[in-house]
Amino acid sequence: MGVLSLSNPTFATPFLGQKLSCGGNSKKPASSSAAVRTPRCALEGSAPTFPRHNVWDPYKRLGIGRDASEEEIWSSRNFLLQQYSGHERSEESIEAAFEKLLMTSFQQRKKTKINLKSRLKKKVEESPPWVQNLLNFVELPPTDVIFRRLFLFAFMGGWSIMNSAEGGPAFQVAVSLAACIYFLNDKTKSLGRAFAIGLGALATGWVCGSVLVPMIPTFLLQPTWTLELLTSLVAYVFLFLACTFLK
User: Fold this and answer.
1) Do residues 68 and 59 make contact, with C-beta atoms less than 8 angstroms apart?
2) Residue 128 burial by CB count (10 A; 0-12/13-18/19+): exposed, middle or buried?
3) In this predicted model, what pLDDT tens digit does every residue of 11-40 receive, in sequence order?
4) Which tens digits make up the pLDDT trace of 84-103?
5) How many alpha carbons lie under 13 Å from residue 20 in its C-beta half-sphere?
6) pTM score
7) Beta-carbon neighbour count of residue 85 at 10 Å?
8) What residues pair up with 111 in beta bridges, in sequence order?
9) Could you give phi then psi for residue 66, rounded to 5 degrees?
10) Contact between 150 and 240 (Cβ < 8 Å)
11) Helices (DSSP H) in 67-190: which residue ranges?
């Protein structure tokens, strides 16, 4: 019997039947996977839909006015994304309107800068000849150069104020004048021109300081601040402007 059972293929059919039954039910996993995806689709279908996703105007789509600021645009975008979260089409529509408004704002700022430069250039070209000749002596150096020289003359001013009780600022004024002439000579490559501009700036600043300082109310000044000290502070300003912006 044992031999017959091993040689007879009909007795091995239960295992084969199981395999065949699995092969015959090969469509069941697909149906089970569809059953797994069904709740996700139902969840997306239950999400609220943005009602203005077909509106062409980005301002109307986000529900803001044309004079809205960038803060209002950001606030509207964040509010709508939070309200219609979970609906992919609605989120894409809101983001598309938001990006379009940001690009429009950037282009407007760029045009404003270009128009401002064009207007300034046009004003200079339409100005009288003496104004144009005067502007030919003025230049705008790099920002780091401006700050370095501003720090130098501010240091001279602070040094003069700290030593106001001991003596006058004659030494500090001389150092400032020498620095101004050095910077001008490095720029113009003409020592005579540098001396002329430096001495002219010092004289102009000293005269303006002598006129303006007496107009300052006395209660704003320290007792140790003399007329000479305050006049030298004004002269430092003129020296800084001369060696930085004149050419």
Assistant:
1) yes
2) exposed
3) 444 433 443 343 444 444 444 444 344 444
4) 888 888 888 899 989 988 88
5) 6
6) 0.49
7) 11
8) none
9) -75, -15
10) yes
11) 70-83, 88-126, 129-135, 143-162, 170-188
